[in-house]
Amino acid sequence: MDEYAFFGPAARFHHIGLAMQSIRAVNPSCEVVVNKTQGVSMAFIRVNGVTVELLEPFGDDSPIARSVRDGVKLLHLCYEVPDLDAALRSCQPAGFHRVSRPVRVPEFENRRIVWVFSKHYGLIELVERDGDGVGGGE
Amino acid sequence: MDEYAFFGPAARFHHIGLAMQSIRAVNPSCEVVVNKTQGVSMAFIRVNGVTVELLEPFGDDSPIARSVRDGVKLLHLCYEVPDLDAALRSCQPAGFHRVSRPVRVPEFENRRIVWVFSKHYGLIELVERDGDGVGGGE
Hints:
Two copies of one chain form a homodimer. By secondary structure, chain A is mainly beta. In chain A, about 15% of the residues lie in helices and about 40% in strands. Chain A has helices at about 25, 65-70, 85-90; strands at about 1-5, 10-20, 35, 40-45, 50-55, 75-80, 95-100, 105, 110-120, 120-130. The termini of chain A are far apart. The mean pLDDT of chain A is about 90. Strand 1 of chain A pairs parallel with strand 4 of chain B, so a sheet runs across the interface.
């Protein structure tokens, strides 16, 4: 089986993003966090060993509103990397391009994330392993 | 973080399905297998530790033709289970329903697979751990 390390040798799968109309309607006990910057409400669950990020549109211009309307469920894969900038450089030759600026996300342990896209592989979120300590970290 | 074992305690994540127009155009060295029954050509690759099933429409009425046209990439998650029938019973209370008959797939080590769907979690493939020995097995 062909193996690719698009995001650098130390990148590890972190989660898969799943869109839904209402997180609370499906998982009443979830801790739901609003991420206004990204226009989503979000919660993490584990399904048979896989971390799934539940995403619900927040606000009228949420980037996932259309996906939810069209019934698209699986939105992205997320990989955790030791160094966001190195990962960005690593995946460019394979045709991934940056579709957002790297931002620090207070709701995600104050880690830095960035979105990349490939017309072949779709949307990928990269998250840096360690935050700056303010938000907690691992 | 809430944990769910929808597909039974022994279910393990196996792969994620990704639609594309042409597997060979993206991964020339892949071993591509035509699965006429399911209307797809398929190949497996690993991307930073995650097994990804590349799926390309085969035939005019391929079930994934529309996804490819609409730019939908991530199609399904697949879990490997020890017993397909037990897994089907296990996931029903969570709202998953069977959308295909269990079939044995010669192109997939002659294992049995079945498709289930939940309006909240989307499309899931279940694959039985062991084939009947005819197709190889693990």
